[in-house]
Amino acid sequence: MSALAERLIAALGPEAVHTDPEDLAVYSFDAYSEDRLPSAAVVPKDVREVTQVVRIAAECGEPIVARGSGTGLCGGAVPTQGGIVVSFARLNKILEIDTRNRRAKVQPGLINLDLSRATARDGLFYAPDPSSQKVSSLGGNIATNAGGPHCLSYGTTTNHVIGLEFVDHRGEVVTVHQDDPGYDLGSVLVGSEGTLGIVTSIDVRLMRLPEAVRVYVATFGDVESASEAVSQIIGAGIVPIALEIMDKVITGAVEAAFKAGYPEDAGAVLLIEIAGLADDMDASEAAIAKIARAGGALSWRTARSQAERDLLWAARKGAAGAIGRLAPNYYIQDCVVPRTKLPMVMHRVDEIARDHRLTVGNVFHAGDGNLHPLLLFDRSIPRDIQAVIDAGSQILETCIDYGGTISGEHGIGYEKRESMALLFSADDLATMGRVRDVLDPARLFNPDKIFPSSAMCNEVRATN
Description:
By secondary structure, the protein is of the alpha+beta class.
């Protein structure tokens, strides 16, 4: 047994420390894998144990990687340099619900949807709702500043986090809150992908459940027409709760899996949700339907019951899983473009897929221009692997060319870090690096994430 393992076991107990290769393999990947095992994986039960792990890691010079549910898509929880993986599977409780002030305090391992389920009886809910909300943890959501279909109206994770408790590089517990004077350090931590500290509790803002909710499905001949309709709706000053588009490939897959009633012969479907006062619903529907029809909508359907609404959303959020019916593997991109550029960018995405002889399925948060093209392939075919890598890179470059960016809610992680140089100058990256050096001078928190390898070696380090 290694000296590191002995120290961890002495601090946390043998049941909380894993060092066998077959156990470590479970903690070596998320949806992205680099085939590198950590030196150890630990499952602490409280913040005191987290501080002990951080201190041991610092004394041993071991990297430390925080891990939630492991549902990330960009290698954010991959231990690329080995080290210690800290799983928050046991730190998964709701610590407090303050219904009067519409706030809650939770642990980072809590599953996103469980918070809304627990607060629904009080007429409250937690707004950020990534498609993985049934399985992703709030700590992981904070790491990537997750959004979801309803972030068009409600905002992303950063808009709902009001305070954080985290363990810093010294193994000390630090608490930050929006009510505190001075800099808003909590907003710096949200989206930092575990590179600045280890979050151990979260204060979040809750919202009131709306009086009325309606969901509609409009069909279009193609994705470009549906995208143009979205721009027209927002341009008219109407901001629905959600505006989601699925193309024919995705619609066929989700309909086969869920039987939600999506028309499979349409080139694209636009899923629309509005919420508010019951007396306002008819007027809002009429205004949106008028714009959709003027934009070429072929049909308009209103969900008539809560069960029907739930099924439509279950199918939409289950799109990635349903794709397994069409291909052995898929690669999903996460990028953002201005809404007005959606028709042009979607046309270009189809061109890129055709050029590489790949099938692409498009499902995306059209309201805020957050694209999720899914490139279908077979990992057993070497040509497919290279084609997917090349096509994915071209899609990112296309989004940048149209004034967009390379991630909307999945983070940068390990996979996209080299693409940061396409967006930011050496000076930009150096400035970010200096912020990290203040909070993690030894760079032991989640190394190899966010920053390009060249920047870490040259631009950023040169400023120290």
